[in-house]
Specification:
The chain has 348 residues and is an alpha/beta fold. The protein folds into four domains: 95 residues, OB fold (Dihydrolipoamide Acetyltransferase, E2P) (Beta Barrel); 68 residues, DNA polymerase, domain 1; 69 residues, 5' to 3' exonuclease, C-terminal subdomain (DNA polymerase, domain 1, Orthogonal Bundle); 87 residues, BRCT domain (Rossmann fold), CATH 3.40.50. It has 15 helices and eleven strands. The strands form four sheets. It has a four-stranded parallel β-sheet with strand order 9-8-10-11, with helices on both faces. A three-stranded antiparallel β-sheet has the order 1-2-3, with no helix packed on it. Strands 4-5 form a two-stranded antiparallel ribbon. Helix 4 crosses helix 5 and helix 6 packs across helix 7. The chain starts with a strand and ends in a 6-residue tail after the last helix.
């Protein structure tokens, strides 16, 4: 199946007969991009080998050709955007709808309103779809010019409309890293948005940065930097509208971060399992933010560069694949409770 992401990227996904990998049942796996599908010579009906990239994302590795059914056809590639039926931009390995974010506008707006971005409580898929369909919202900045009447019409209730208006007003004061993340810049997510916001401090400084200056942000290399700069430039009208609507454009200075020398300074920390104790309820984004606040850098998979693995015990009592690899590499392994003690000063 082909899905269209919030930035217009076409994402191919393999539907699989259920298979258990590293303690979880997998029925879907990423196929990465069209070129990758062709390189692996994948056919409909193939038996395939599957692994978890970074111990997290199921990915098709290869076809077992001797088991290929007679008459199997190569995985077909789309000739038009699966979402809107429009043209496809095939200039890069990752194909995109030629309309870009406009193709997946409801998904982008819903993403921007999410708890980890603008945190507009109550603005879910149904109301977002209504606002987009009515033409009241054409980009994320339009959220901040909505009237109570428009929100009432979208939600079907004056009470809900008034509540949504309050939530949107409160969202104007979110820190820069959340506002930047809500823009949906290609190649950036929550962690990268925090690094960019903390590095530059203001939206204006981000907009003025060239590719060389963007590379000064940890995790942004020579390939990603020009893409981020180009995306920010393309979003200029949206950013201008956000500023005009009174949305915050600065990142608050964290005194503890400014002092440096946190307990995780210079360390790469990987997290696996469901957190407990003082960290109960912490998801991946919250853990990454905590790690960065304490001076460290969040990693996704265990490698020789990993300093600490925070590993919650599994339900079946068996160590996870990350814990096994950490033991092989001599990486320090901490329970959620022990890690919480180490970063106790940064939990507030």
């Amino acid at each position: 199946v082909w899905e269209v992401g919030r930035t217009g990227v076409l994402a191919p996904t393999a539907l699989l007969a259920a298979v258990e990998i590293d303690g979880s049942t997998v029925t879907r796996a990423t196929l990465h991009n069209p070129a990758d599908i062709r390189r692996r010579d994948l056919h409909i009906g193939d038996t395939v080998t599957v692994y978890k990239a970074g111990d997290i994302i199921p990915r098709v590795q290869a076809a077992v050709v001797p088991l290929r059914p007679a008459g199997a056809i190569p995985v077909p590639l789309p000739e038009a955007c699966p979402r809107c039926g429009g043209e496809i931009n095939t200039a890069q390995e990752r194909w995109r709808c030629a309309k870009g974010t406009a193709c997946a506008l409801p998904a982008l707006i819903e993403y921007a309103a999410g708890r980890e971005m603008l945190d507009i409580d109550g603005l879910g898929k149904t109301y977002v779809a209504a606002l987009v369909e009515s033409g009241d919202v054409l980009d994320v900045a339009d959220l901040f010019t909505l009237t109570v009447e428009q929100l009432t019409a979208a939600s079907g209730s004056a009470k809900r409309g008034a509540k949504l208006a309050e939530q949107i007003a409160a969202a104007k004061d979110r820190p820069l890293n959340r506002v930047f993340c809500a823009l949906g810049v290609l190649g950036t997510g929550r962690s990268m948005s925090r690094r960019i916001a903390r590095h530059f401090g203001t939206m204006e400084a981000i907009r003025q940065a060239d590719a060389t200056e963007m590379q000064d942000v940890e995790g942004i290399g020579p390939e990603k930097a020009p893409v981020v700069v180009e995306q920010v430039a393309a979003l200029a009208p949206v950013i201008d509208k956000l500023a005009a609507a009174g949305v915050n454009m600065t990142e608050p200075v964290d005194p503890s971060a400014a002092q440096g020398g946190g307990p995780l300074e210079g360390k790469v920390v990987v997290v696996t399992g469901k957190m407990a104790g003082p960290l109960e309820g912490f998801g991946r984004s919250e853990m990454n933010a905590l790690i960065e606040k304490a001076g460290g850098r969040a990693g996704s998979s265990v490698s020789a560069k990993t300093s600490i693995l925070v590993a919650a015990p599994s339900a079946n009592g068996k160590p996870s694949s990350k814990a096994v690899k950490a033991a092989e590499l001599g990486v320090e392994v901490l329970s959620p409770e022990a890690f919480a003690e180490r970063v106790a000063d940064y939990l507030a």
